């Protein structure tokens, strides 16, 4: 758990980089700090492991005031991933990943075992990578190693500063999926900085939208998209925020709430879509007119029914406009 | 690519041919004779030469390396321009002038020669140490800090290994320069192989000239070769060729 209590950071000359910030990252949740550049999101993140000083207020990490801890000890308990991965070129992949365990004085055997299990977790072959150096790896591989390194000593809390920002879109999406998969297993408490709205919607349990060092809104992605608190929030998410919010809902949910239509067996030109696919991709598929009919199938390939643009629209009306108080993630 | 290779090989071949031709010419005219006929003198001069280079280079490394590390610490960063200015100024004085100046202060002899060469070697080592450490990606240091490394751990495990290539290149430059410049030590009575070179010039005697100059050249080539080998041992595999200076 990370708890921000009236946290303020000001520089000489009275400029506030962070103004009176209050929110809590619950255990096992991902909270994304989102906002335009210069909004103070990175500064706020770096205040947690005290790479930036705190002017006023307190930050509690796992129930302990961060200022009461020795900063070196504090940092060893917090996983840290940055955009340009920060791997050390002079060390092998194994040494890079095992830095924090090494600082903590683990034995050689413990480190070796941990390295193998971590590499298994991130889906890279430990024997292939152990003796290699960072400059021999692709950007995506380096970033995976960066994540493994942050997880090495099994810290309960992780800070991630635009970890996937430098990757190309295809790799980025893949690593985001992989990371969410890992997170389901390790359940870390994560503070995540991003400037990418889609990434924030995808990764976050809750989003903190910031501007000029202040929190504009702290909410779940769906609630923030459906009910922006002020003009800045609605502008930031853009006019297509209803479409963006569709990526939080699956075809399954639509089926459960309003049901699918019967499919027409006489139509030849059909395409199928998995029931766990999100509605944003489904809508794109429908609007691209790739086929005359889109049939929804479950994981076993059983045909459940057909989906149309009308259905998506009806769902949108029902789910997003119709139930203002419900805020849940799909 | 092939033309490049061809030109490279032919230039190399020409240089080798010239060197071989030179040696044949020198041996035929018995210009190396002094090395053998006055071998005890030669060995004394050689030893003096090596001592001057070794002592001055070691002191220079012992001073310039810690100075370069110190000046790149956050606390002293502000003074970098000032220290660099002084060191650069030291380098802009011609080597002969440094010797002359030192002679007027310290008198003549071995110590003066060592001191002058030491002053002269500080810059390449200091400058390359600072450049090597400065060229390290600040994100890397940030990551190290964020993971809980102490400043000393960051220095010895991250900064120095990654700056090693640049630092060693500085040492190599300094030592090779020193071997050549040490020939001037004769001028202030510091001894070394410069004694034969200058005798050769004054007496118009190719024998003395070549018996002095060729060993100095060979020493410089050998030192360069050995220090490059050292690079392969000291510089970690992953950060090789990442910093070119």
Textual characterization of the structure:
- A six-stranded mixed sheet of chain A has the order 6-7-8-3-9-10, sandwiched between helices. In chain A, strands 2-1-4-5 form a four-stranded antiparallel sheet, with helices on one face. A three-stranded mixed sheet of chain A has the order 11-12-13.
- Chain A is of the alpha/beta class and 330 residues long.
- In chain A, 39% of the residues lie in helices and 23% in strands.
- With 245 residues, chain B is mainly α.
- Chain B has ten helices and no strands.
- Chain B has helices at 2-28, 33-37, 39-71, 80-92, 95-106, 110-134, 138-146, 151-181, 194-203, 206-234.
- Chain B is globular, with a radius of gyration of 21 Å.
The CATH class of the largest domain in chain B:
Mainly Alpha
Radius of gyration of chain B: 21 Å
Quaternary state of this entry equals heterodimer
Secondary-structure element order of chain A, as H and E? EEEHEEHEHHHHHEHEHEEHHHHEHEEH
Protein structure class of chain B:
mainly alpha
Order of helices and strands of chain B: HHHHHHHHHH
Principal-axes shape call of chain B = globular
Unreliable stretches covering 5 or more consecutive residues of chain A: 324-330
Distance between the termini of chain A: 23 Å
- Largest sheet: spatial strand order of chain A: 6-7-8-3-9-10
What CATH calls the topology of the largest domain in chain A is Rossmann fold
> What's the CATH H-level superfamily name of the largest domain in chain B?
MetI-like
Helix share of residues of chain B?
over 70%
EC number (chain A): 7.6.2.9
GO molecular function (chain A): ABC-type quaternary ammonium compound transporting activity; ATP binding; ATP hydrolysis activity
Keywords (chain A): ATP-binding, CBS domain, Cell inner membrane, Cell membrane, Membrane, Nucleotide-binding, Repeat, Transport
InterPro entries (chain A): AAA+_ATPase, ABC_transporter-like_ATP-bd, ABC_transporter-like_CS, CBS_dom_sf, Gly-betaine_transp_ATP-bd, P-loop_NTPase
């Amino acid at each position: 758990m990370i708890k921000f209590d009236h946290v303020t950071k000001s520089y000489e000359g009275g400029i506030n980089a962070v103004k009176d910030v209050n929110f809590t990252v619950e255990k096992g949740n991902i909270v994304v700090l989102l906002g335009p550049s210069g909004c103070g999101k990175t500064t706020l993140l770096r205040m947690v492991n005290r790479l930036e000083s705190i002017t006023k207020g307190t930050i509690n990490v796992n129930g302990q005031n961060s200022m009461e801890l020795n900063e070196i000890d504090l940092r060893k308990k917090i996983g840290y991933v940055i955009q340009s991965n920060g791997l050390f070129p002079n060390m092998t992949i194994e040494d890079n990943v095992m830095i924090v365990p090494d600082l903590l004085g683990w034995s050689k055997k413990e480190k070796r075992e941990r390295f193998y299990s971590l590499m298994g977790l991130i889906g890279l072959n430990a024997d292939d990578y152990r003796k290699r150096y960072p400059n021999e790896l692709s950007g995506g591989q380096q970033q995976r190693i960066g994540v493994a390194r942050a997880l090495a000593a099994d810290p309960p809390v992780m800070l991630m500063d635009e970890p996937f920002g430098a990757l190309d879109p295809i790799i980025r999406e893949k690593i985001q999926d992989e990371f969410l998969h890992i997170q389901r297993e390790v359940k870390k408490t994560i503070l995540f900085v991003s400037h990418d709205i889609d990434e924030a919607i995808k990764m976050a349990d809750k989003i903190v939208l910031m501007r000029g060092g202040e929190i504009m809104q702290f909410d779940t992605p769906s609630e923030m998209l459906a009910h922006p608190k002020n003009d800045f929030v609605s502008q930031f998410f853009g006019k297509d925020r209803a479409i963006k919010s569709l990526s939080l809902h699956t075809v399954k949910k639509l089926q459960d709430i309003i049901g699918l239509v019967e499919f027409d067996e006489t139509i030849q030109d059909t395409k199928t879509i998995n029931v766990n696919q999100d509605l944003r991709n489904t809508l794109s598929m429908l609007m691209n007119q790739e086929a005359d009919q889109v049939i929804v199938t479950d994981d076993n390939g059983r045909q459940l029914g057909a989906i149309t643009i009308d259905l998506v629209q009806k769902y949108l009306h029902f789910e997003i406009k119709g139930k203002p108080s419900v805020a849940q993630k799909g | 690519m092939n033309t490049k290779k061809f030109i490279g090989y032919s230039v190399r071949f020409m240089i080798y041919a010239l060197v071989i031709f030179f040696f044949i010419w020198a041996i035929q005219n018995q210009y190396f004779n002094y090395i053998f006929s006055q071998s005890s003198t030669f060995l004394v001069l050689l030893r003096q030469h090596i001592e001057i280079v070794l002592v001055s280079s070691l002191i220079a490394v012992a001073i310039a390396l810690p100075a370069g590390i110190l000046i790149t610490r956050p606390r002293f960063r502000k003074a970098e321009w000032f220290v660099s200015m002084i060191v650069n100024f030291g380098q802009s004085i011609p080597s002969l002038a440094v010797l002359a100046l030192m002679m007027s202060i310290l008198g003549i002899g071995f110590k003066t020669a060592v001191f002058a060469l030491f002053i002269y070697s500080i810059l390449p080592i200091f400058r390359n140490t600072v450049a090597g450490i400065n060229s390290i990606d600040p994100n890397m240091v940030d990551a190290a800090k964020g993971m809980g490394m102490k400043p000393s751990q960051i220095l010895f495990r991250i900064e120095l290994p990654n700056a090693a290539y640049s630092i060693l290149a500085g040492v190599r430059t300094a030592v090779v320069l020193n071997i050549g410049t040490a020939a001037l030590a004769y001028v202030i009575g510091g001894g070394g192989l410069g004694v034969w070179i200058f005798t050769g010039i004054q007496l118009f005697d190719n024998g003395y000239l070549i018996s002095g100059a060729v060993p100095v050249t060979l020493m410089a080539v050998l030192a360069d070769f050995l220090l490059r080998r050292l690079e392969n041992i000291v510089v970690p595999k992953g950060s090789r060729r990442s910093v070119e200076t």
